[in-house]
Protein: HlyD family efflux transporter periplasmic adaptor subunit
Amino acid sequence: MKARLCLLALTLLLVACRDDTPQALGTLEWDRIALPAPASEKIVRIDVREGQHVKAGTPLLQLEVTRTQAQLEALQAQAQQAGEALEELEHGPRSEQIAQARANLAAAQAQAADARAYYTRLQPLGRQQLVAASDVDRARAAAGNADGQVRAAQAALLELERGTRVEQIAQGRSAVAAAQAQAANQSATLRRLDVTAPRAGVVDSLPYRLGDEAPLGAPLAVMLVGDRPYARIYVPEPIRASVKVGDAARVFLSGRDAALAGRVRMIRSEPSFTPYYALIGEDAARLSYLAEVEITGDTGGDLPAGVPVRVEFAR
Structure:
């Protein structure tokens, strides 16, 4: 009888000690990466299944490329056009253009000389009132207009003879750079339509199915990556001061007796409301602090994400 009483007392003591141990609840997690849709295109091929282990570079799925390929070809053509326009600016005007401008100047000068001569002949006749004053005015205006045509032809010839301005060449180069950048961006989008695994890991989710057209930026695949999982827990406010980054911890998984060794790698400085599954007794009315405890042992490589965990911290 006395032995039974001693055993019962020891059991109660162990339970009491365990209840006094600082602890927090949460879930087991892996690092997640989402692969967004680079364009709103239809899924034409899916190469993997959910839960499959893949290596880096493994094809996951393929999007329709027809429209993006056509847009790329259009942008490449625009870049080529801009390059040819720049080359034309750098070469300057053709000799035939200069010759044409000189001929236009000569023609304008001849017309101006004829208009001035006609006006000169009408002036004395106008003073003698042998012709109408309106005819003299029209002749004077025609002579002035012809002189203006001569000055315009001279300016056009001078512009061609001096060649292309450096500012025009700079603008042409900027246009070429912009067109090439747009084509390069579209080329990168085209390559991303063949969705591959950026890292080795597990395909956790494929939200869309074959034939679906996901909107731009929607996650086409979600992967779990990393060497080992970690526990995402909520530290109650009463024990926050005693939990620090680098502290050792024991991670207990639901349905698993043995504890996993862990280490606190992050704890938030701002409190948050505690999720329902992390409430313990009086802690339901308190705030908690989000923390992460990395698994330091070698037994966490095949553990699933989302499993409830309980983390105990050494006093």
Observations:
- The chain has two domains: 21-64+202-313, 75-183.
- The chain has five helices and twelve strands.
